[in-house]
Amino acid sequence: MTTATDAPILAVENLVTAFRTGGGWHPAVRDVSFAVQRNETLAIVGESGCGKSVTALSIMGLVPPANGRVAGGHIRFAGRDLVGLDEEEMRKIRGDRISMIFQEPMTSLNPVLTIGFQIAEALHYHRDMGRGEANAAALELLDQVKIPSARQRFADYPHQFSGGMRQRVMIAMALACRPELLLADEPTTALDVTIQAQVLSLLAELKAAYGMAMIFITHNLGVVASIADRVAVMYAGEIVEIAPVNELFARPTHPYTELLLRSIPRVDRDTGGLSAITGQVPAIGAMPSGCRFAARCPLREPICTARDPLLVPLADAPDHRVRCWLRAPPSEMASEAGHA
Amino acid sequence: MGEAGVPHEFGRAFTDDNVPHPTLPRKRGRDDDCTPMSADSVVLRRGSSYAFQQLARAFNANATSWIGLIAFLVIVALAVLAPLISPYDPLDQDILARLEGPSVAHWFGTDSYGRDILSRLLWGARLSLVISTVSILAAMLIGGVIGILSGYVGGRFDMVVMQAMDVLLSFPSLIMGLMVVAMLGASMGNLMIAIALTAIAPFARIARAPTILVKERDYIEACRALGYSDLRIMTIHILPNIVAEILVMASLWLATAIRIEASLSFIGLGVRPPTATWGGMIREGFENILDSASLSIFPSLAILLVVFSLNMLGDGLRDAIDPKLRGGE
Amino acid sequence: MLGYIVKRLLLAIPTLFAVLTIVFVLARVLPGDPAQTILGDQASQEALENMRHRLGVDKPIGAQYVDFLVNAVRGEWGNSLVTGKPVVEEVSNVLPYTIDLTVTSIVLGALVGVPLGVWSALRRNTWVDYVARMGSLLGLSFPAFVSAILLLLAFAIELRWFPVISTGKGLNSLVLPAVNLGIIMAAYVTRVTRSSMLEVLGEDYIRTARAKGVPTRAVIWRHAFRNGLIPVVTVVGLYLGILIGNSVLTEIVFNRPGLGKLIVSALNQRDYTVLQGMMVVYAFAIVLVNLLTDLTYGFIDPRVKRQ
Q: Cβ(A212)–Cβ(A180) under 8 Å?
């Protein structure tokens, strides 16, 4: 196994996040493990409801306490385990060392506060800056995210901006304190395609300039190809495949990944029709035993419904791990879901 | 209480997209203009069994509605049985026993003519319940018809009718009741008219909203092509979807109706004495407040009990109903 | 901001005329011949004709309408049929009392209701929430005169803290009536604040604020509260209609001078001109309240100003 030469900035180990539904607690995310290196972009891909957002929120400690909780595992960030950290300590980390941007730019900004204020706020709380100083820094950030006429627009309100611009504001907000890790939860999904490209390139630029690591959540494999270093594919709350990006696209191993890639419409090929994956993601309270994808998997064998498969590295590509009895049977050597 | 299991603390309940997580609410479809969801995206069902299902679910969501319902039914039972269980004739005077407090002979005391308060309370209950029930039923019927018609016909007619409803709505209920009774004279019938008038507009509005939604559906065209009469369309397709909401409005307005009737009686514009009315009894109590507290307190408690139980019923149900189904409040 | 204010003021004028028109229509709807009401059944035809001429009801309806509008705005509302004094005078005699009472109750209601509503939303489904919800439901269930009488019994008669029969002047006679109306107001405000805060707390931008590491206190008061206040303002404006009804009852119970008692006695005595004057007052009040509500929105919600 390759050992990382630098310690990863984030190491998630066996994360379990559960929600209370219909009287009982059910895990929405189960046994999720991955690591992110500094300056690396990890993409998390999957269908809606597969747990990618939940994972990000768990890292941030933003799982709504009324009905959800992190029920197990560890989230190691810069040497500390974020699970079980007390709220005040967690608050200091949020927005400062780990930031998050969200999917809906139209509703993610407070309508009654100016955008300048909302950007400066993080600096005020985390860097103890006074208003003047924070405002100046916020103005600079607005420039960096390429908001035209930043000075005039500083005191404007969110409703005076378009969707793409608001997302830039969100980025400015998130990056104000130069976090070491950025969680991006489908930041471009709600935007026009042309704006998407702009925002993505802005993110890439800033990430390089700030030396940030990034976890990019999306259901769009096309986006993944252009920005990710590594990709994790999630299904029904579990990681089913994780690999460097080129490796994943060249050799999709898990049946689900394969089907996902095949279902992307291609302009250059005549496939004679769109293919979709039949069936639906199982409900959180009705998870089948064994492999969760088995019901929809064309390769299904008896062992698949009998026991849960483990996330196991491929024999010839140790940093490519797959959770499938058939495609990645565990050898004697590598039989535990480890870090990569 | 209410929305079972929906995480509502800080932070929006997250969904990756619109596929329903079993506990989390569907994200509303929004676009940049914040235009409301199109008619097609709201689910309407048909049939009376759906109506019952919805009702049952709403009731079972929390305890308040049950408590309210049971309390109210108890009072209704007492009122219905008044002729049988009333210890005295409510009009029976006993001047020697004026303004007495509670005693063995008169559990709640006597009023300024020596009449038994308990008996008068029971009979007053009948009166209040009859007046409020009839007026609210009338309002439901008339308001419902107006609302459905208005929504269905649409266009100018709809606009005019809704403006009229808005005007009606902007009048405080009590003042409107005052004016109507003052104009027409104080009698049971006029009281009912007055109260019904104040309640028509809200019912019209909740009947109108789903009507409009249904009207815009393509399958209405299909129904018409099949020869369904408009009336049938309205009964089968529209009504089941608003049943629960109507029930909420009905309970809450019943409570208001009882309050208005009592207030009007208190002012002196209710059913004329010596008929026993709760409001009238309180007025008497007010006039004799230094001599007897019972005459003020017991009818007050009675009114409070009824209104509160109805409010609990309506409120409990309303909490349980999906807020998206609420139309014009 | 100034532009917004001016715009709203200008819009208020046609609204005022619309409402006055409605008042005019309603006044004409009252059945019966006003001349007959005043002079009684025994009056001669000639006397009736004279009276009708004096009242101006023999003119064509269009002319009546114009007269009405002009007079309403100029404050010439005729004389009371009962006392003979100008209606304007009758109204302005009692108006200060009503204003005192109304403003005090609104302030009381808001001071109690808003914090309670916020607290209740933050402690959702705990005993605090439950008590607040049941309590406010109970508060709403009291007809205003019931709570007034109970207050009178408890605090004026039993405890003797306040005069039983008040003159209407001074703080002493304001307390109980204001508390009475204030309680009901607080009940409404608590409920709407609670539900509004709950909705706001579930919004995306609150999650963003938390993700930035904003401390909880600031999240609630700086981020959530201002947004949550918007529906509360609406409700307070709407509530004014109910407040009028309730103050009528309150003024009766506490024997307090005010528009409420004026209306009731006018209704009882069929004082036609006073009634009409009252409705004009009501029209002005509606427009004023709408204006105030709109201005408050403009103050709280930046989206409104910059249209």
A: yes
Q: Residue B46 and residue B210: Cα distance in Å, rounded?
A: 12
DSSP A6: S
Count of domains in chain B?
A: 1
Choose from B3, B6, B19, B21 for mutation: most chain A CBs within 10 A.
B21
Which of helix, strand or coil describes residue C218? helix
Which among B7, B11, B19 is the nearest to A48, CB-wise? Answer: B19
- Check pLDDT > 60 for residue B43: no
How far is the C-alpha of C303 from the C-alpha of C307, rounded, in Å?
A: 7
The pLDDT mean for chain A works out to 86
Alpha-helical regions (H) of B185-289 = 188-215, 218-225, 230-233, 239-267, 278-287
Across A104-108, B195-199, C169-173, least confident range: C169-173
Give the domains, in start order, of chain A with CATH numbers. 10-97+179-275 (3.40.50.300), 110-176 (no CATH)
Asked if residue B24 is part of any domain, the answer here is no
Judge contact between B132 and B259, C-beta under 8 A: no
pLDDT tens column, A213-267 = 999 999 888 888 888 999 999 998 899 999 999 998 888 888 888 888 877 776 7
Beta bridge partners, A16, equal A72
* Cβ contact, residue pair C268, B182, below 8 Å: yes
Say if residues C153 and C109 touch (Cβ distance below 8 Å).
no
Considering the domain boundaries, does residue B192 fall inside one? Answer: yes
Main-chain phi, psi angles of C82, to 5 degrees? -95, -50
The residue of chain C nearest to residue B4, with distances taken between CA atoms, is C125
Contacts of B232 (CB under 8 A, 6+ apart): none
Considering all CA atoms of chain A, what is the largest pairwise distance in Å, rounded to the nearest integer? 67
Of C141, C148, C59, which is closest to residue C105 (Cα–Cα)?
Answer: C148
Q: Is residue B266 part of a domain?
A: yes
Between strands A10-21 and A24-36, the pairing is antiparallel
Long-range contacts of B161-165 (CB under 8 A, 24+ apart): B161/B204, B162/B205, B162/B208, B165/B200, B165/B201, B165/B204, B165/B205
Separation CA C289–CA C231 (nearest Å): 15
Domain containing B258: what range? 62-321
Q: Is the pLDDT of residue B323 over 60?
A: no
Could you give the CA distance from residue C101 to residue C217 in angstroms, rounded to a whole number?
A: 34
The minimal CB distance from A94 to the residues C124, C211, C227 is found for C211
What span, in angstroms and rounded, lies between the C-alpha atoms of B153 and C219?
Answer: 48
Max mean pLDDT range (A208-212, A335-339, C74-78): A208-212
Predicted TM-score of the model (pTM): 0.79
Say which residues have a Cβ less than 8 Å from residue B78's Cβ, sequence separation at least 6.
Answer: B85, B122, B125
Establish if B38 belongs to a structural domain. Answer: no
User: What CATH number is attached to the domain comprising B188?
Assistant: 1.10.3720.10
Q: What ipTM score was computed for the predicted complex, to two decimals?
A: 0.85
Residue B245: per-residue pLDDT: 77
- Put simply, the chain C residues between 242 and 261 with a CB less than 8 A from any chain B CB are 242-246, 248-249, 252-253
Which chain B residues touch C if contact means CB-CB below 8 Å? Answer: 1, 8-13, 167, 170-175, 178-179, 182-183, 255, 259, 262-263, 266-269, 282, 285-286, 289-290, 293, 296-297, 300, 303-304, 307-308, 311-312, 315
Contact A49 B16 (CB under 8 A): yes
Contact between B183 and C30 using a beta-carbon 8 Å cutoff: yes
Mean predicted confidence (pLDDT) in B111-125: 87
| The pLDDT value given to residue B64 | 82
Residue of A nearest to C307 (CA): A160
| Cα separation, C84 vs B278, whole angstroms | 36
Are B9 and C201 inside 8 Å of each other by CB?
Answer: yes
Residues of A in contact with B8 (CB under 8 A): 64, 66
Residue type, A330: P
The pLDDT score that the predictor gives to residue C30 is 59
Chains with 3+ CB–CB pairs under 8 A to C are: A, B
